[in-house]
Write a structure and sequence with these properties.
There is one protein chain. The chain has helices spanning 4-10, 30-45, 88-104, 130-136, 141-145, 155-161, 173-177, 234-250, 287-307, 327-336, 350-354, 381-398; strands at residues 49-52, 58-62, 69-75, 112-117, 179-187, 200-206, 208-217, 221-222, 256-265, 271-272, 275-284, 311-320, 323-324, 342-345, 360-365. Strands 1, 2, 3, 4, 5, 6, 13, 14 and 15 form a nine-stranded mixed β-sheet that branches. The protein folds into two domains: 4-207 and 322-398, Zn peptidases (Aminopeptidase); 208-320, Alpha-Beta Plaits. It is α/β, with parallel strands linked by helices. It is globular and about 75 Å long. The protein has twelve helices and 15 strands. The structure holds glyoxylic acid and manganese (II) ion (2 copies). Glyoxylic acid binds next to loops.
């Protein structure tokens, strides 16, 4: 029986990124595969029966796989240069909660499964929550299979290389029916829980969010021989578009919009790029407002591109409506965690994708600075322990 802190400590060296800092654990990279193996071994040490389904989701069963089971879990992949807790805290807390439950009862009243979802961050193939989207049918299977990583590998090829059969990837009603209730514990990613007071909160909703790709095309050319007046430089347009994204979102209360990734093609110091791709992440509680925000950004981008002699296209890569967690399940969890505040989150989660299909809820653990998707993400040992204990209480109450 290991505590959540011991479990997290045992993976603290997996996938450290010496260049970016923090952790880079892209789905099906060596570090993420090592973590999946670590999870399987930890689950087996606890006597759980482990299976990997046709979408690469790992299920560790206490009791027989059955419809309507209680399911908890999170993910082990990370953003590039991410923190130690986003994902692994939920998985390690679930294992620690199983230990606590096993010390309280010999057999659960209904089966309990701990799950690990692949590609929650969308760091490798660009679509967040790819595993739960495939499971629920929230993404077209052909679109998913044809997603490419930065090296040009398709998801189909990578999935095949890791034992999945691309012909069987996609909606899985049988697996979905096994989830009676889903509870995901996660590090809080804002400042919703103060430095003092409760360390645990119950989730209420997830902000609607999506990802778009803007491709700005110009004239690739020589940095030394092309006069400034003769250029159609997409990098100059891209720089202005980044500012327009910030300014457009800043005018819209509650909106967030980010360009976190930008790739010049071909990308040489002495080369005027021929194309620059920018990825836009935008979020707002009202889906109609998000649509309007994207239209305004695209319109500004077209004007900027034209003024630089360039053109721009916009492609939606993924979108998730605002999600409200199951009120009945959340109320029961609130009763099981008296004094825990109720928090909305701006971060996406597999629990949000599942919420459209099965009763889902979330439990958040304090992150004092609110910093996340950064090496500075932090959870104190005592708060992690409180989180695992709270998850055990929730699971015991729901079993
Ligand atoms: C996932 O963490 C997201 O909110 O993008
Ligand atoms: Mn994340
Ligand atoms: Mn996460």
């Amino acid at each position: 029986m290991e505590t959540v802190n011991q479990l997290l400590d045992s993976i603290k060296d997996v996938g450290r990124d010496a260049v970016r800092g923090g952790y880079s654990r892209a789905v099906y990279s060596t570090p993420e595969l090592d973590l999946r193996q670590w999870f399987i071994e930890q689950a087996q040490q606890r006597g759980l029966d482990v299976e990997t389904d046709r979408n690469g989701i790992i299920w560790a069963w206490w009791g027989k796989p059955q419809d309507g089971a209680l399911v908890t879990g999170s993910h082990l992949d990370s953003v590039p240069g991410g923190g130690a807790f986003d994902g692994p805290l939920g998985v390690a807390s679930a294992l620690a909660a199983v230990d606590l439950l096993k010390s309280r009862t010999t057999a659960p009243k209904r089966s309990l499964a701990v799950t690990v979802f692949p590609e929650e961050e969308g760091s490798r193939f660009g679509v967040a929550c790819l595993g739960s989207r495939l499971l629920t049918g929230a993404i077209d299977v052909d679109k998913a299979l044809n997603l490419r990583d930065v090296d040009g590998n398709t998801f189909a090829d990578v999935a095949r290389g890791h034992g999945l059969d691309p012909r069987h990837v996609g909606p899985d009603q049988e697996a979905l029916a096994r989830i009676g209730d889903f509870v995901e514990l996660h590090v809080e990613q804002g400042k919703g829980l103060g430095q003092s007071g409760p360390a645990i909160a119950v989730g209420s909703s997830i902000l609607g969010h999506g990802r778009w790709k803007l491709s700005v095309s110009g004239q690739g050319n020589h940095a030394g021989t092309t006069l400034m007046a003769d250029r159609a430089d997409p990098m100059v347009a891209a720089a202005q578009i980044v500012v327009a994204v910030r300014d457009t979102a800043a005018k819209q209360p509650d909106a967030r919009a980010t360009v976190g990734r930008l790739t010049p093609v071909p990308g040489g110091t002495n080369v005027i790029a021929s194309r620059v791709d920018l990825w836009l992440d935008a979020r707002h509680p009202d889906d109609a407002v998000t649509a309007q925000l994207i239209e305004s950004i695209y319109s500004a981008a077209r004007e900027i591109a034209a003024s630089e002699g360039c053109t721009v296209t916009l492609t939606e890569e993924s979108y998730s409506d605002t999600v409200h967690f199951d009120p009945g399940l959340s109320r029961r969890i609130n009763d099981l965690l008296p004094g825990a505040p109720v928090l909305a989150t701006g971060a996406g989660h597999d629990a949000g994708v599942l919420a459209g299909h099965v009763p889902s809820a979330m439990v958040f653990v304090r992150n004092p600075s609110g910093i996340s998707h950064s090496p500075e993400e932090y959870v104190a040992d005592e708060d992690a322990s409180a989180g695992a204990a709270a998850l055990a209480d929730v699971l015991e109450g729901l079993l």
